[in-house]
TrEMBL record:
It comes from the Bacteria. This is site-specific DNA-methyltransferase (adenine-specific). Belongs to the N(4)/N(6)-methyltransferase family. Keywords: Methyltransferase, Restriction system, S-adenosyl-L-methionine, Transferase. Its EC number is 2.1.1.72. Residues 154-445 form the DNA methylase adenine-specific domain. It holds the Pfam family HsdM_N. One of its GO terms (molecular function) is site-specific DNA-methyltransferase (adenine-specific) activity. It catalyses: a 2'-deoxyadenosine in DNA + S-adenosyl-L-methionine = an N(6)-methyl-2'-deoxyadenosine in DNA + S-adenosyl-L-homocysteine + H(+).
Length: 741
């Protein structure tokens, strides 16, 4: 499923949900649980369908055995849950309208819970009666709409649909009423750095369980051909203060094949999992800048006081309805403490935190110094703004590694090092208000951590993967190039034939536009030789690389030089093609409007210009340097071309030419203890990595087009501004006149 298809599906599903709300007497926050319950049921059915053949094969294999295991045991072993016949989505979807759909869904949910104790009292049941109270057809309609979620929608696709709905519900209540859901791409990057293959994972502010799901997806990607239903050796622990969200998290981990324990708890005051020194991994996106945590209730908690508790400069208590209360000035460092103290001796952690925490002063600064001296902070990453759907503020990622803890500062301080990465310029612009990491950007940033750890083989493996993608997609470059050239030349030839056969009047021949047509047809069609030659060079270089198994940085660099020549030739060719198309379109419109006569046979033989531009669009897609925002032939490229992967290779090799870690100005820097001390223990990434001005990656034509677009937008805004100013002046005049009267 492509991004555009997913976006359309989300919009259609949300439209159905809001229509259902309009047709019922329920508030929006009263329909979120049953709606998300149906999404859960649909995704569970999708996953079960994929495993069903394995379950049936196991049943068949046991037919002659002495002990035939029941189907639900096999299903739970392979899939994580069991769906009886009456709990299958299609069974509910195909029930006749006169049936009590609400009762059928309730019974389906109850059956699922009966075979999965972890879901006891979690799935929505009685809520469906409220939805059908006014209109009994509402649930039937909703089942039909949600059936549009493709059977292949699993893993990330379901997570994105789920996240979309959760975000919509949160935003409908206002930012204060909902939670700030961590974007999938940010979580993927956190997981890419931590690499939680197995063990215990703790999220003390787990929300709907998004961190756990991405851990599950990471393990799925690294299973190396194991059976689809193979059990993951991960156990997740979560705490969440909102009961409804706890239920969503439990649904989420079950349907993603995870074992775990999610509890309702306020992490400030309740230690639901006895977390001190317990977990292999800790991940969270906790609430930022909370200012109402009762200091007296947490001051003796070793989860928070091991490295120091943030305190106000003055000890003056604040008056509340419960009497005088001492509050923690800011809860950020309570979370930072909780992460550091929840780890096992070799544990690792990642948390999302407000940028301001990196430079916070007073008691927070002292805690930061202690953490640095303990060697617990392994990595700091600053992200761009607009990475979160509900807030625009930039955030940082803090990474901890308990295995590097310093026990004797004076003798071990030389071992204290922190990797700083500035990822503020690494993102894909989704729309005007939102940004995200692409999968390749996640891998590129993640491999910096691997290089820092001395795993140079991971760098080579990533470049090798990109070279394979180039090899697979490169034929699309050539075929789309040949198609666009042939289409242009055929069109040009027919158009020229019309021009040369037409008898123009003396009046027409004197027209300025006729001279333009005459000049245009003195040109020849577009050639293809040089581009094809460069393609053949790349094809030969890639074949040699793969046939001889030359997986070394030196061999990859040599291939990249050939790819660079090809990519530069592509830029030249693309520019020439686009220029030729603009000239062709301009003269075609001139001829069509000013010189073509009705029912001309030769004119009718000229192909429709729209068909010609389709070939150009396909060529642009298959040679785009970036992910296409609206890819046309998505079944081929999914928005990514061979050139796109060439750019990924170049990004990596330009920064790490030896295939080993090195500090890169504007991107990454390993700072030692003395350097951090010199910055007064600030962990602001910009203080360490420096600044570099990077190329925007635009061609000259793209730059001109972008400037024209921005200028047009500026002109529109200027006109609007003048209109508003006029309206304000009129209103002020009316107010003044009324006052004078």
């Amino acid at each position: 499923m492509t991004n555009q298809e997913l976006k359309k599906l989300n919009e259609n599903l949300w439209s159905a949900a809001t229509k259902m709300r309009a047709d019922s007497d329920l508030k929006l926050n009263e329909i979120d649980t049953p709606l998300l319950g149906l999404i859960f049921l649909k995704f569970a059915d999708n996953k079960y369908s994929l495993i069903e053949s394995e379950i049936e094969a196991e049943l068949k294999a046991q037919e002659d055995s002495r002990r035939q295991r029941p189907v639900h045991e096999i299903a739970i072993e392979k899939c994580g849950f069991y769906l009886p016949r009456k709990a299958r989505y299609n069974y509910l979807l195909n029930l006749p309208e006169e049936e009590d759909i609400a009762k059928a869904i309730k019974e389906a949910m109850d059956e699922i819970e009966s075979y999965k104790p972890e879901l006891k009292d979690v799935l929505p049941q009685d809520e469906y009666f409220a939805l059908s109270r006014i209109d009994s057809s509402l649930l039937k309609t909703l089942l039909k709409n949600f059936s549009d979620i493709p059977v292949t929608a699993s893993g990330d696709i379901f997570g994105k649909i789920y996240e979309f709905f959760l975000g919509k519900f949160a935003m409908s209540e206002g930012q204060g009423g909902g939670e700030f859901y961590t974007p999938t791409s940010v979580v993927k990057y956190m997981v890419e750095v931590l690499e939680p293959y197995e063990g215990t994972v703790f999220d003390p502010a787990c929300g709907s369980g998004g961190m756990f799901v991405q851990c599950s997806n990471f393990v799925d990607r690294r299973k190396n051909g194991q059976a689809m239903g193979a059990e993951k050796n991960l156990f997740v622990y979560g705490a969440e203060k909102t009961l409804a969200t706890v239920k969503l998290a439990k649904m989420n981990i079950v349907v993603n094949g995870l074992r775990g324990d999610i509890k309702q708890a306020n992490a400030y005051y309740e230690d639901a999992h006895d977390s001190f020194g317990k977990f292999d991994y800790v991940m969270a996106n906790p609430p930022f800048n909370v200012k109402d945590v009762n200091y007296d209730r947490i001051k003796d908690d070793k989860r928070f006081n091991t490295y120091g508790i943030p305190q106000n400069k003055s000890a003056k208590a604040k008056k509340t309805k419960d009497g005088d209360v001492n509050f923690v000035p800011n809860g950020n460092y309570l979370w930072i403490n909780l992460f550091a103290t929840s780890l096992k001796p070799n544990g690792k952690a990642a948390l999302v935190m407000a940028n301001s925490a990196s430079d916070a002063r007073h008691s927070e600064r002292d805690i930061r110094e202690t953490l640095v001296k303990k060697g617990l902070i392994s990595q700091m990453v600053t992200m761009s703004s607009n990475m979160f759907s509900t807030v625009t503020l930039p955030a940082s990622l803090w990474f901890f590694d308990k295995s590097k803890e310093v026990l004797d500062f004076e003798t071990e301080k030389e071992n204290i090092k922190i990797l700083f990465i500035d990822a503020r310029n690494v993102y894909r612009q989704v729309d005007r208000a939102h940004r995200e990491f692409t999968q390749e950007q996640i891998w590129n940033l993640g491999v910096i951590s691997r290089l820092y750890e001395g795993q140079e083989n991971r760098f080579i493996e990533l470049v090798d993967l990109y070279l394979k993608n180039v090899n697979d997609l490169l034929p699309n470059c050539l075929s789309s190039f040949q198609t666009v050239i042939d289409s242009y030349n055929t069109f040009f030839s027919s158009f020229k034939k019309w021009f040369e056969s037409k008898e123009f009047s003396k009046e027409e021949a004197l027209h300025d536009e006729f001279e333009g047509l005459l000049d245009f047809f003195t040109s020849e069609g577009l050639p293809k030789n040089h581009f094809v030659q460069q393609y053949e060079r790349v094809f030969t270089a890639l074949n040699t690389y793969f046939e001889k198994g030359l997986s070394t940085n030196k061999a990859q660099s040599e291939v990249e030089l050939v790819l660079k020549d090809f990519e530069e030739e592509k830029r030249t060719v693309k520019k020439a093609i686009e220029k030729a198309f603009r000239a062709l379109e301009k003269n075609y419109k001139i001829a069509d409007k000013g010189f073509k006569e009705k029912d001309e046979k030769l004119w009718k033989k000229i192909e429709n210009f729209r068909n010609l531009t389709t070939s150009l669009e396909r060529f642009i897609e298959h040679t785009n340097e970036r992910i296409n925002s609206e890819p046309v032939f998505t079944e081929d490229t999914e928005g990514k071309s061979a050139i796109y992967f060439i750019k990924q290779i170049q990004w990596l090799q330009e920064r790490f030419p030896e295939g080993k870690y090195e500090d890169v100005i504007g991107l990454c820097k390993v700072a030692n203890y003395e350097e951090v001390k010199e910055q007064d223990f600030s962990l602001n990434t910009g203080r360490y990595v420096g600044v570099v001005i990077e190329e925007d990656g635009m061609t000259e034509e793209e730059f001109v087009e972008e400037m024209i677009r921005l200028n047009t937008e500026l002109n529109v805004e200027s006109v609007t501004s003048l209109e508003l100013l006029s309206t304000i002046n009129k209103n002020l005049d009316n107010l003044t006149d009324a006052y004078e009267v």
